[in-house]
Amino acid sequence: MAKLNKKQKALREKLEARKYNVDDVFKFVAENPGAKFDESIDVAIRLGVNTKHADQQVRGAIVLPNGIGKNVRVAVFAKGDKETEAKNAGADIVGSDDLIEKIQGGFLDFDSVIATPDMMAKIAKVARILGPKGLMPNPKLGTVTKDIEKAVKAEKGGKVEFRAEKAGIVHTMIGKRSFGAEKLKENFKTLYDTIIKLKPQNAKGVYVRSVTISTTMGPGVSLDVNTL
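Below the sequence we write its predicted structure tokens.
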């Protein structure tokens, strides 16, 4: 475990050994910085699902009401009118064969990728590069679409993708500490309510087992799920 600095030690001492209600947890992370920079606020939700079974996968994408406080660089695979649509919508990089060649050459200066359906066969050439980095366009996540303008604006406006990993934990960012408690709470509730709606029918026992909120450099704060 990494050695804690004085600020981190002080925060851990200040943090009470209990579960906090939804108002107090966001007040704590918003008012108690773990570093001098504007830290990201991360959520870890442990679900009672077995992700080894296809019918217990929990995955989705949502646009958070207050964004995530990050400048997202969007790459779009499109041609013709859709290429123009992407540029007008604010996409940072737009191309087709030329973009594939750049990626094959090591170019990955973007955070998300959108594609029109007709481009997917071409993108298969770089699937082994994009896939492991979580950048492969996916129709279930709204990143393979004909409505390029809507998709680009969603990515730019605070869209987050999430999925339950091997241990059944959904981990994602919901904003910056500078947002303040209320906006962070709104973003969290949007995420949490979406995950509740995605509960697999075959999930057994308690669905939401724990929720932990943390800043980039701060300690994890346990949320009392019963207060939601």
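The chain has a mean pLDDT of 90.
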